[in-house]
Amino acid sequence: MHGPSPDTLHPFNGEPHTVYLKNVITRPTIEVGDFTYYNDENHAAEFESRNVRYHFDFVGDRLKIGKFCALAQGTTFIMSGANHAMTGFSTYPFNIFHNGWEQGFDPATIFDHLKGDTIVGHDVWFGTNATVMPGVTICSGAIIGAHAVVASDVPPYAVVVGNPARVVKLRFDEATIERLLEIAWWDWPAETISRNLDAIRGADIEALEAVATELGGECDAKRNSA
Question: Does the predicted model carry a pTM greater than 0.90?
Answer without folding.
Answer: yes
